[in-house]
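TL;DR need structure tokens for one chain.
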Amino acid sequence: MEKVLPLIHTGGLTALSPSTCSNLIGLLAKLACTSLVAVKSLFELGVSSTIKGILITSDISHGMPYLPLEKQNNQGLTCGSQNLPAETCPKQGTSSSGQAERNTTILSDYTIQQKLVFSLNGKELDRSVTLYQSILQDHINAGSEIILDMQFWRSVHDITFKAANPEANRTAVNPEANDSPRHSSTAMSSINENTTGFTWQMLPFFSSMLLGKLPCKLDRSGASYDILFMLHILEGLNRYSFHLVSDERNRSFAHGRITNLDDLKAEVFSIPQQEFVSAKLTDKLEQQMHDPLVSRSCCLPLWCIELMSACPFLFSFEARWKYFQLTAFGSLKNHHGHMMDASVNSVAERGSSHSRKKFKVDRDDILVSAAKMMKSHAKSNALLEVEYKEEVGTGLGPTMEFYTLISHEFQKSGLGMWRGELPCKSGTHDTHVSRFVVASNGLFPRPWSASEDPASFQEVSERFHLLGLVVAKAIKDNRILDIPFSKAFYKLILGQELNIYDIQSLDSELAICLVEFQALACQRKYAESNLTRDCQISDLTYRGCRIEDLAIEFALPGYPEYVLSPGSRSDCLNAENLEEYVRHVVDATVKSGIARQMEAFKSGFNEVFPLKKLQVFSEDELERLLCGEQDTWDFAKLVDHIKFDHGYTSSSPPVINLLEIIQEFGSIQRRAFLQFITGSPRLPPGGLAALNPKFTVVRKNNSNDVDHDLPSVMTCANYLKLPPYSSKEKMREKLLYAITEGQGSFHLS
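>> reply
TL;DR here they are.
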């Protein structure tokens, strides 16, 4: 360790060969899995520059050249479907999490579902790729030039088939099939699992490190494989750095190295994800996706699929968004742009090539209308357009407002869906206080016990199913939702497992209490196992107070009706049941207590498109896609991203007044202004620059006395008609009146 760290932090990497550099950083990554000193070195002493050095000095894109699909040759990075066991390779769109579970699933695909084996020229075909790709790969392997002329398309390719032998096929496809699970099991069996909340050795990236391989089919003999593997480990350590440091402090308290409970608090500054992005790989992926043949056939080269599965962090957010569109919906041209740059905004709207479905909804019964709409059109590829009963307006504006309204409906109290929900008190007439769920850290499912009222839970389950449909359809149609999910909820959507440290992101007070109780439970267990230590169990206290004297019921905080364990209702917390209490509370809060709700959500989501397609994104990026982002509105940015037309220029006095007023708006007024202009109180990913159509301001002349006129909008075109008011104060007055009172109805303009 002492020899590695100086090389890392004194610029020694620049003098080393790429292979030596890779080996040193790889060693540090492995050491970090068992040493908090190395973790600290990675995340507090400038590993950002180290990663940059790796991405710059070690060309991990070498061997992954851009070539039009019809000209690709054997210079490309080998995807070792013949060299690596297929069972160890996750299917397209999956991440590295849940490796053991996916191995079992894929093994089942090969040994049970496969009835026939198909071969081309005597070579067994890989079922994970298309026949077209297999034919091209056969030409590449033969070293022959590929010319896509008439002769190529007229050629007859003989495909032979035979009945599959499950056992023989399993052995042929994966010679290590009998070994890998055993090795994994052996490695994991030695781990002393912390049943009260978190076991860092079970993290997906750590499982990958134990197996010594990436969860993909990339050729392990390639020069870039070791660097990719090392970056995979570093990114995982970075992502879980808070969990790792918190767990280490918990152990230090148990062993007596820390004596103050306040010292359990961990503050870790992770490296921004942008530091892991490879510009070269991103460029090559972009070129491949814009190849006309690829965009029409959806046949990306295997290296794109495998790298996106194993190391999605190497690609920029914009590139992964395009990859997601291509793999989830079939074509980049199927979706209109809400994205970050002009190239994506120029993508034609889906309505040009796909049908649109209009649906009439009732403003007074949004949830019922949404349920009917999703039942009829959720699985359709058509763009949904909304119009309201007894209103003539239709198009983008009313549709965006519908997704805003349904977002607000799901946040209302009384639905039994979210933590922090306060039921209305009988006899009270103050509906404002309890109308919406207050969740400062974002919405997260409230726990439901299996013993609670089945009829009530059935309604909750149906609401989560509908929520899954709405969220998926919003993503598919590029609509923005105004619903603040918690980071922990996004992790669940992405298939990640939560633990005691994730409670911090949804209920910090409960998390602190549980972590401290867990530390005491670990201290008690360590004292019992260490026979030479002079420590009485009864001496264990919580901040100077005996556990029994805290008078805490053995019940789920905030949900006394939830049964943590049979026969525990009358129990009080004590030193004997402290560990059991923490385990049950964590399980009820982030595991079994919310599992059925999440299953209902995922069931609804998967009816629109496979949820696993989202796993190329992080939880922060998923929030950005679904709910847009907050944009800073400085004067120069507003001038750049707003179009002034039909009587106005950027230097017109009314325009300058408008821009100054917008800058002075608070958050509530800004949300109201955005909803007035676009139908949604949030901006799409990319901010104001990504609005499509572009926000346009034009001069409105309806009367001789303009100070009595109100501004109006065409939400379908993001079009503001602004009278040339005589003063800034008069414009502010009329604009605030319009954005406050001019909501809830669409008419022809």
